[in-house]
Fold this sequence. Notes:
Layout: E1 12-13, E2 16-17, H1 23-28, E3 31-34, H2 46-50, E4 57-58, E5 62-63, H3 65-78, H4 94-106, E6 112-116, H5 124-139, E7 143-147, H6 151-157, E8 160-165, E9 168-174, H7 180-188, E10 207-213, E11 219-222, E12 226-230, H8 237-244, E13 253-257, E14 260-261, H9 266-271, E15 274-277, H10 281-285, H11 292-297, H12 312-326, H13 342-355, E16 360-364, H14 372-387, E17 391-395, H15 399-405, E18 408-413, E19 416-422, H16 428-436
Helix pairs in contact: 12-13
Amino acid sequence: AGxxxxxxxAVLIDGAPAVFATPAAARAAGVSIxxxxxxxxxxLSVADNIFLGREFWRGPKLIDRAxxxxxxxxLLRRYDIRLxxxxxxxxxxxxxxxxxxxxxALSTEARILILDEPTxxxxxxxxxxxxxxxxxxxxxxxxxxxxxxxLEEIFAIADRVTVLRDGKLVATxxxxxxxxxxxxxxxxxxxxxxxxQTSTDLTAAPVVLDVTGNKTGxxxxxxxxxxxxxxxxxxxxxWIARRIAGVLAHGDLTVRMSGEAVPDDPRAALxxxxxxxxxxxxxxxxxxxxxxxxxxxxxxxxxxxxxxxxARRREKKAASELFRRLRLVATSFEAPVSGLSGGNQQKVxxxxxxxxxxxxxxxxxxxxxxxxxxxxxxxALLRALAADGVAVIVISSxxxxxxxxxxxxxxVRDGRLHGVVANxxxxxxxxxxxxxxxxxxxxxxx
Length: 446
């Protein structure tokens, strides 16, 4: 895509060598990309972002925004993407921001479209809409390179699959010749067990978090429990989690930790042991230009500065020990965190949470954009934390993940907690019916 210079090898398009010094050169050759991490500018409108760098001009100095709105509206309608061209990207949800990225790529009339983890933040309905767009593009003769860790997607839309491991090509196969188990083994170089459903009885464990609200509903999380917030994209899961963590004002919520009221302030919540892992690590979670170690210790600076001065040696030692435990891969822990892969950036976020010594850990899409091996490590980490007595809340758009990982599931719909169900005897189809309201909640779980 022209964003990085090649270190070896060659790119051939129509059999001829192609060298792209810039992304603009790649776009001119018909190559467009949607990155895993967002590249839109939040302060600009949807239309401005779609045509960023390719603006329509009225004279030498005036941008023709009226034409941009018309062209953007036509493009969005063509692909049934329901976004207002005039709205600021900053006001959009994570899922809608992903759709802006896709619309920008489609606007270039690309011959080669690269999609990097495009469904990580999309609802099931939005995923199906994206797949329909991809199939339509393939029907027009467009080559789609689709990067994903969600294996069911590969089998749903890909003709062939190429496996890369540790930066090297393993091989390429016809998708029809592989099973998901084959693909997992090829990706990791080992057998990976499917996530096993938990069945821990925590009815006698003390309540760590108690949430009540006249409009939002009630929720209690016990010591050593992994509780999932289950709902469709936009149901209000993140909104509720951010209110619990003090990132947003509590509103009608009353939040108590072990019976003590928690003010609606993120520092006060952190002081009481509430640690929140954001769903958008790039925008809200990491200081991208700063060192990996600095990012990991950002929430626990007082423990490394007892007299107002940072004890850098102790800070580096504590962070390094956690990085080794989490199997973080980096050339140097003093390098900028921006240079890490998405999975390793997620491990830095987890290191920060562990250094803060959480009593309640809220994980918003903790496995977004990470491979199957890293997912297995994250599941093991969350279960180890629960075994040590930490209460854990997990938000995930992957229902099999919630069913397998969590002890109970709180159902979220229209910004309200509708009740809590045990995950025993649940499957993905049944849970979908419950979160959409097509089926009633089973008897309340203790």
